[in-house]
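#structure-requests
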Amino acid sequence: MKSFELHQENPPPLTMVGCGILRKEVDRLIEKNHWNVHTHYLDSALHNYLNRLSKELNQALEEREGRGEKTLVFYGGCHPLMENYLEAHHTCRTEGQNCIVMLLGYEVFMRELEKGAYFLVEDWALTWEPMITACFGMNTPVIREIFHSSHKYILALKTPCNGDFTEAAEAAARFVDLPLQWMDVGLEHLESVLADAIQRRLSQEQ
């Protein structure tokens, strides 16, 4: 199996602050490649609440930097001011519009998106109904109308790190009244995204 070695001998430790949506996958890749990276994961539903995302991300970065740690951000363009935050904290983030692009790659992501996919990962499936109702309210017909307006099916993404979340995915699809499809996904693209971000961060002076 291919490993991504960093172009730096004995690189200093990094602390990656980011979304917990793919924590299992990220942790496995860090372990596989023996990257000197610690992790600090935030709630995977924060992308629904921009004020909370801003507060919690900046707070986590400040805390880690206050300990003298060199940080890296595992997020897409999940906040309109994300690039400003990166600049303020003298750090960088993983490349990609969102975590699904990082996992699938842009071409696969766009292909399924254009067909009407709503991408579902294990973490969201397991917390689906409370997460959705907290965001959109308790009116199921309204929630379904929102989903039907821009999606034609739920595409559940199963990685090598997932358990069996079939029941949760089926319940999520029923809740929004959309058909469910499945896709098996490897970690190769995510691995290259992480390796690139780690290398870029190590190359920065601060």
